[in-house]
Amino acid sequence: MGSSTITPLQILKTYFGYDSFREGQEEIIDTILDGRDALAIMPTGAGKSLCYQVPALLLPGITLVVSPLISLMQDQVKSLNEAGIHAAYINSSLTEGQISKALSFAARGVYKIIYVAPERLETASFLAFALHTPISMVTVDEAHCISQWGQDFRPSYLKIVDFVRQLPGHPILSAFTATATEVVKNDIARILELKNPNIVITGFDRKNLYYRVEHLTGKQKDTFIANYIASHANESGIIYCATRKNVDTLYEQLLKQGVSVTRYHAGMNTEIRKESQDDFIYDRAQVVIATNAFGMGIDKSNVRFVIHYNMPQSIENYYQEAGRAGRDGEPAECILLFSPQDVMISKMLLGSKDFEGMDFAEMEQVRHQDAKRLQIMEGYCMTTSCLRNYILNYFGESTDQPCDNCGNCHQEFEELDMTQDAKWVIGCITEMRGRYGQALVIGTLLGSKRARLREIGADSYNCYGQLQSRTENDLRLLISQMIRQGYIVQTDGEYSVLKVGNISELQQKNTQILVKKFKEKEKISASKKRKNPYGKSYFEAENTAGNSNEATNTSSPNAAKKSALFETLRQLRLQIAKEESVPPYIVFTDKTLIDMCEKLPGTESEMLDVSGVGQNKLKKYGQRFLQEISSFLSNNN
Ligand code: ADP
Ligand code: MG
């Protein structure tokens, strides 16, 4: 192997400025350096890029990285260049002239790492280049794109293997994805023809993400968002809405409130959309409001919160979208604002789904799947147990301990004995002969005066108004628990109805139905619990943690100073990012700035101790940051 004296750890420190590898990284790197194929399945933000970039610097020839999106390639190449590594991309954003120039540089060995779109591999000029240049490794990033069962299938990923077969030197193959399903994993290994690959799968958990569900009506959602943004000024965040209309309305609203906000949905023209995306990535806009069209190909590492204005259609979607928070490993928050109406919206959206090219049986199959996923998603919003465990269990990771780092774990509960109520619910469904949905069942039991109830004659049922002392939310919790326990069956589809399930246990004398619900009055504000990495609250939270007998609200001068310094460094970073035409997080991540505030480096060698400061960045930016820190300290002595 190339320069045998340099170790992967030295590369990590020298170029990337990190002291240690994260879970799975070293194993993948060693596998590759042993000349063996590798497949890594690691969650978003786990650090997959370094797993091929570090060995790429140690292998004798070039590493080709196949990546699905231009924006991802640009981001990666900028990051590598900032770290002092020669890398380039070859894709359709370049002119033919630029491409042949890049290829001739590449042939002369100027670049260690070259990013390409899969389509590029099929072109004659690229193949000619590849046949005459030593290629040590072919890396397939976002490798799930090869599977028809994945979310972002790209047919041209299927051709990668044809390209690799033609290469003379039998390069090592490595593949990376965050999609952990069995089918996708097997597809990747099989279709890429990986030889005896070392398959490394790390846990799916993203420990730095704080999950939280808030049950709110439409108006309350708007207030929540306004308050949240006001108390998280300077934090970058994404707000996902289910529809374009919601995006536009919320956007106008926040704009009026003076929030630095942009928006993104498929109804906007391509250029404006691109501009909005850049405004967000370059921190010119604090918040982006978007439909789920936004996010693919965004590697922005300092997203501190992802709020869902509406419930998404599946846990898969939710995990992917929420997972765009906290890529830098610093604490970040994922909040889902739930209202029962969201379920209706989702059903409507699924109902209008395009089934082109499917026969009836396939269509039914997909419908059934969709409905099931939606139910499980709704279960996430209704559960009173640990939210993280709910997600992990869904992805097949068994966990038992509550995480103590989610809204539900920090929530206080009370238990209601709803055994009698459960019997009335069954009575109501029986009287309705299983023809109606949850809303009508609840309305009937509460004795609501809705016209629709009169129309169906519900106001003359025995059970009408029997549970009027309960709230709608109590009954919703009860019914969702009874569905989980199998006492009630909820049918699929847009007009799902409730039917009586297996109630033999319920009819036994000593069966009790206990429903856990949030204690409204003592609701602990979750945002207080989170260590906020950005600005004030982070340093305050930290300070009070070490000083628990100091139960005052005033922050210690130390914390206030740190957060002021953080803000100063953030401004400097923004300034440099402008000069360099790169997004601020590529200059330094939030984590790096926070570490500077903690360590207060005074010399170049102290600066090198800061996480994320490698040799090249020290040379480029070290002096400016040292100066800023030193003048801040002397002004604030
Ligand atoms: P993924 O592709 O798995 O989603 P990335 O490769 O984009 O994740 O890495 C996410 C972030 O983690 C980047 O900011 C990267 O610099 C950082 N990172 C990766 N490895 C380490 C490490 N060993 N120590 C500290 N930070 C790391
Ligand atoms: Mg990645």
Automatic annotation (TrEMBL):
What range(s) does the Helicase C-terminal domain occupy?
223-374
Catalyses: Couples ATP hydrolysis with the unwinding of duplex DNA by translocating in the 3'-5' direction
The cellular component terms of Gene Ontology attached to this UniProt record, alphabetical and capped at eight, are: bacterial nucleoid; cytoplasm; replisome
Catalytic EC class: isomerase
Residue span(s) of domain Helicase ATP-binding? 29-198
Q: Which domain of life is it from?
A: Bacteria
- Is DNA-binding one of the keywords? yes
Residue ranges annotated as compositionally biased, kind Polar residues, are 544-558
Q: Which GO terms describe its molecular function?
A: 3'-5' DNA helicase activity; ATP binding; DNA binding; four-way junction helicase activity; hydrolase activity; metal ion binding
Q: Extract one GO BP annotation from the record.
A: DNA replication
Name the EC number(s).
5.6.2.4
What keyword terms does UniProt attach to this protein?
ATP-binding, DNA damage, DNA recombination, DNA repair, DNA-binding, Helicase, Hydrolase, Isomerase, Metal-binding, Nucleotide-binding, Zinc
Gene3D superfamilies per UniProt: HRDC domain, P-loop containing nucleotide triphosphate hydrolases, Winged helix-like DNA-binding domain superfamily/Winged helix DNA-binding domain
Alphabetical list of SUPFAM superfamilies matching this protein: HRDC-like, P-loop containing nucleoside triphosphate hydrolases, Winged helix' DNA-binding domain
Q: Where are its TM segments located?
A: none
Q: Which cofactor does it need?
A: Mg(2+); Zn(2+)
Please verify whether the record's keywords include ATP-binding.
Answer: yes
Q: Report residue spans for region: Disordered.
A: 535-559
What are the residue boundaries of the HRDC domain, all occurrences included? 559-637
What family does this chain come from, according to its entry? Belongs to the helicase family. RecQ subfamily.
The name of this protein is: DNA helicase RecQ
Q: Which taxonomic lineage does the organism of this UniProt entry have? A: Bacteria, Bacillati, Bacillota, Clostridia, Lachnospirales
Gene this chain is encoded by: recQ
